[in-house]
C-alpha cells in the first residue's frame, strides 16, 4: 500500500486506513522502529504499559499474579482463531522512491 505524508504543524503524519489499523490491533498507540531504510509500526501493548508496570521489580511473580485473580481462561479451553496468524507480522512502510 502506498500512503502520503501529511504536514501537521512542525511535524508530519501518515494516514492509514481503519482496516489496516484494525487488522494490526492498533487502537491508540504504536511502537515505531527504524530498521535500515524501513519504518516498522507495531501495536503498542497499552494494557501492560498502563497497569503491569506497577508490580515489576517490587514483588515476586506469584504476588503480582495473585492480584489479578482468576479469569475465564483458568477454567475453559481456549484456542487462537485461525485468522490470527496474519496479525503476527508488523505493518511495514517503506520509503517511496
From TrEMBL:
InterPro entries for this protein: SpoVT-AbrB_sf
Matching SUPFAM superfamilies: AbrB/MazE/MraZ-like
Protein name: SpoVT-AbrB domain-containing protein
Organism field: Alsobacter metallidurans
Source species taxonomy: Bacteria, Pseudomonadati, Pseudomonadota, Alphaproteobacteria, Hyphomicrobiales
Amino acid at each position: 500500500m502506498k500512503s502520503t505524508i501529511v504536514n501537521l504543524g512542525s511535524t508530519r503524519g501518515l494516514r492509514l486506513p481503519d482496516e489496516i489499523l484494525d487488522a494490526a490491533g492498533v487502537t491508540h498507540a504504536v511502537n515505531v522502529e527504524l530498521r535500515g531504510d524501513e519504518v516498522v509500526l507495531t501495536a503498542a501493548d497499552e494494557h501492560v504499559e498502563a497497569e503491569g508496570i506497577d508490580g515489576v521489580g517490587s514483588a515476586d511473580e506469584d504476588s503480582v499474579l495473585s492480584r489479578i485473580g482468576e479469569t475465564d481462561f483458568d477454567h475453559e479451553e481456549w484456542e487462537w482463531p485461525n485468522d490470527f496468524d496474519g496479525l503476527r507480522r508488523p505493518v511495514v512502510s517503506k520509503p517511496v522512491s
